[in-house]
Amino acid sequence: MQNYTWIGPAESVACDAEGMATRVRALDAPCYAVQNERGVGLTNEGSVQFGGDGAAVLAMVPPTPAQQLGDPGFRATYGLDYAYMAGSMANAIASTELVIALGKAGMLGAFGAGGLVPNRLETAIRQIQEALPHGPYAFNLINNPNEPALERQAMELYLRHGVHVIEASAYLTLTPYVVQYRVAGLEPGPDGEVVIRNRVIAKISRREVATLFMQPAPAKLLTALREQGLITATQAHLAERVPLADDVTVEADSGGHTDNRPLVCLMPSLLALRDELQAQYHYPTPVRVGAAGGIGTPTAALGAFMMGAAYVLTGSINHSCVEAGTSPHVKQLLAQAAMTDVMMAPAADMFEMGVNLQVLKRGTMFPLRARKLYEIYQTYASIEAIPPAERQKLEQQIFRRTLDEVWADCITFFNQRDPAQIEKAQRDPRRQMALIFRWYLGLATRWAVVGEPGREVDYQIWCGPAMGAFNDWVRGTPLEQPENRHVAEIGRRIMDEAALLYRVQTLRMQGVTV
After folding, report:
1. Using omega within 30 degrees of 0 as the cis cutoff, is the peptide bond preceding 465 cis?
2. Which among 7, 219, 360, 511 is placed 20 to 30 Å from 162, CA to CA?
3. DSSP string for 340-355
4. Structure confidence by residue, pLDDT tens digits, 255-274
């Protein structure tokens, strides 16, 4: 920085490695690289002036606390200290404890409501609202084409209990339920603006789905909801002026439902889409775009912020934490995983559609067995059409009981949860086969959560490559052991070290290597 000089106490300038590291890590203070009689050093004190007498300034970085990373609007909207969010792993793996711990630390956690019956979900709502009466917290609203009643019931619970933030996930198209949730929270403001009470954070991985959430709610759905008396005419009119979602999370190569897209390609595309739609609709507040999938280290988080992410969202790494609602055996397997220890397998909730999700393959045979079930489903039209030898293998190796017994369990289960599923299956043999196979896929998740003895090789463990990257990062530290992994501490460390890396890179771009 030619012609700039530094004025300050000479003893504050550190030229040794330890002292320089200390000054770079002082994120709340400026950092100056200066040249004096002792060489090149760093200091957090003094001031810089143009010209005059003093030590030559080689580089400088302003205060860069981790709380400044990301979009300040995101933090303000949700009442956060950090632009950091933990995603909603279904079946309460993203547990009440996880959401509460993050909320108390000024970060946003989304409860994993997917797969839960209404009574269980209502209990979680009460627990989280009691612990975080003023937030921040979010709940998941997951698209469930096979059991739409669960999606509707979850939405109704959120409206009834005043849950004002949801993470909408697994949507391929819009449903009336996510639209009703959003629009039912719209009110006219005193100056003619639209007051938004119900916030939607949509997790997406496809441009066409992002478009749906970045646009106003479709007129067709608004009309239907208004005619049913579920929203008012005023709310329907206000919905034309705001996007369906406040925030869109770009989900790259993640655990669970994923299209395995690279973040460095997907993020710029959806930022450009946001800008195109903003130019068309002129929203008072543009849709913010966050990043998820592969975020397991400070370097990944900083990379996302530098691409323009308003916030970062983590998932797989939280699965291995103390607060995660899963078994100790699963957490041990996750803590040993490498980036390559994952693969795609059929999803229980969208089995018939051929939708896959990303799971851990280390220490479990679930992904291979799930693929085998889908292969049989594609090959045969009914359970009766499966050759006897093949059926025997299924019963002995995968189900460990007869398929007739499994079907009896399905009848009991769905009669309590959604009787329409049984009615459809009794009319359609192929549908019956799908429900029987989904018995295994669904229970494989539960076995992992509760740590079912004897079923370890069948555990379904949602996991992306971020888990392996995280394990590499923490190797040799206390965080290597899952019993030391706490979601809030990990979130703070990722954000603090991302801010530190930003300082280091800023100095480097000015010619000073620390």
Report:
1. no
2. 219
3. TSEEEEE-STTGGGT-
4. 998 999 999 999 999 999 99
